[in-house]
Amino acid sequence: MSHLLSRPLVELHGVVKRYRLGGAAIIALAGIDLRIGAGEFVAVWGPSGSGKSTLCNMIGLLDAPTSGSVSFRGQDAAKLSDNARSDLRNQGIGFVFQGFNLVPVLSALENVMLPLQIGGASALVARDAARLRLEQVGLGAQLTQRPSSLSGGQQQRVAIARALIGAPALVVADEPTANLDTANALLIIELMRRISREEGTTFVFSTHDQRLLERVDRQVMMRDGCAVEDRLHAATVATPLAAGGY
Ligand SMILES: Nc1ncnc2c1ncn2[C@@H]1O[C@H](COP(=O)(O)OP(=O)(O)OP(=O)(O)O)[C@@H](O)[C@H]1O
């Protein structure tokens, strides 16, 4: 789907993020303009320190820019109260992290149920929805297992199921494959892309692994806080590795 034709879900205008470290100013983002449409599958690529995580935090409304604006579903995040911004984020955006961030004492099912229960859903409703999501990511047989008994790839699939449990329009994944081997990294990307295609969910993930870029529709290349390249790309589909993988 073209980012020029599709309705923008996220819009960044002139986004600058500056940090102070001692007396020095660090420019993490140097003025980013970006429009991400509904249903796009986007990789943010760049070397260490180029600003990928900072950009993900902006897109996910986890952090505010020093200057410039970030809008989600047409709403300028800076013009919302803290509560309204949290509501917008909680209802519209799911997150996946490099370290999976699962609760160790909870089962896979309980981990995925958690966001719905925090949002006020009954255990019955949350359990049914979580089971469906875990089946969708190929973990229907691992519902009662704790994270420590799952592989890294399986833990990240639980985290993806958890990110999707509220049916968000956008999933932001900061280096979701950094702790995985290549085979599992590719499976995770294929899984996210399949869900994006099936449900129209927008995915934005960061990576420093260039090999993953051929699996995405759009590549945003970061260098020194700037988006130096933003291009559409005909993604390679279904590899033998991914077929039947989960
Ligand atoms: N909280 C912070 N305080 C000070 N400087 C920061 C902070 N967060 C990020 N930076 C700096 O901003 C720049 C961009 O960091 P960022 O983490 O966004 O890059 P990255 O591309 O995600 O790097 P990596 O691949 O290593 O995670 C770096 O120079 C980093 O040191």
TrEMBL record:
Residues 10-245 form the ABC transporter domain. InterPro entries: AAA+_ATPase, ABC_transporter-like_ATP-bd, ABC_transporter-like_CS, ABC_transpr_LolD-like, MacB-like_ATP-bd, P-loop_NTPase. SUPFAM superfamilies: P-loop containing nucleoside triphosphate hydrolases. GO terms for molecular function: ATP binding. Keywords: ATP-binding, Cell membrane, Membrane, Nucleotide-binding, Transport. It comes from the Bacteria. Belongs to the ABC transporter superfamily. This is ABC transporter ATP-binding protein. It comes from Duganella aceris.
